[in-house]
Specification:
Radius of gyration: 19 Å
Number of strands: 10
Largest sheet: 6 strands, mixed
CATH architecture: 3-Layer(aba) Sandwich
Distance between the termini: 22 Å
Shape: globular
Helix content: 25-40%
Number of helices: 9
Structural class: alpha/beta
Strand content: 15-25%
Mean pLDDT: 85
Length: 267
Amino acid sequence: MFEISNLGIKYRGTDHWTLQKVSFVANPGEITLITGASGSGKSTLARALMTLIPKFYSATSEGEILLDGQEVNSLSRSELIKLCGYVPQYPADFTTTLSVEEEIGQTLENLGYLPEQILRRIDEVFTLLEIKHLRKKVQTELSSGELQRVALATAIAPDVPVLILDEPMARIDLKSELLLVKILLDLAKRGKTIIAFEHRLDYLLSVVDKVVFLADGKVHSEGSPKDIISNLVDVDIPEVSLIQINNDNKYPLSITEAEQILKQILH
C-alpha cells in the first residue's frame, strides 16, 4: 500500500512548488488513476514515488511517501525494485541493453533470479503482453508503442506488488490500449497495487477504482470515477462516439447529456 501525506516538491533553482500538500492512499487490488492537465504535476509525483526525486532530480521535498509503512527514500534501489515496477513516460530514456530479451533478463539477473527462472519469467511476460514477436528484436528498431510494452514487461517481470505507470496510453494504438486495460485489471485482481498517471481516459476511466485529480500541483478532488467526472477539466474524457447509447433522434448530445450517460456507465 502506498500512503502519500502532505507531499510537496520544489525543483532546485525555482521558488515554485510543483506539488503542494498532496495526500492520497493507493490500496492493493485496486487501480488508482492520477490525472490532470499537462503541467498539473503528474510526472513529478510519479518520479517522487519511485525516488527519482530527490535521488536523480535535484529538488526539495516535504511530507511522507510510505510503501507498506516504510519511507520510500529510506529504501535501497534493490529493495525498491523488488517492491515496485515503473513504466516511465519515455521508455527509450531508460533502456540499458541492446535487445528486448536482454533488457528484461538483466533486471531479473540483478535481483538474483536463476537462469532457468529468468527464462521462464520472460516466457510468461511475453505471453501475457502478447509480444513474443519482439523477443529477439533490437530495441533501437522498435516503435514507441513497442518500447512502452517492453518497459511494461520489464516492470512486471519480477512479480512486484506495486506497478507505477507514467502516461502509459500516450504512444500506443487502440488495440494496445485495450490490451493494456485488460492487463491492468488482471494484475489488480491478483492483488497488485496499480497507480496509473494518465490524461487519455477513453478506456481507463471506466475500470479504475479511484481517481485523484491534480490541478496546479494540488489534489483538486478525489473519489470514484462516477463521483469525479464532473470535476475533470482539460482532460480527455471518453469520447461519446465510442459509447453505445439509445439516441433515436440522431442529434448531437449536449455536455450535460453526455455527462449523464458517462455517470451511468461509470462505477
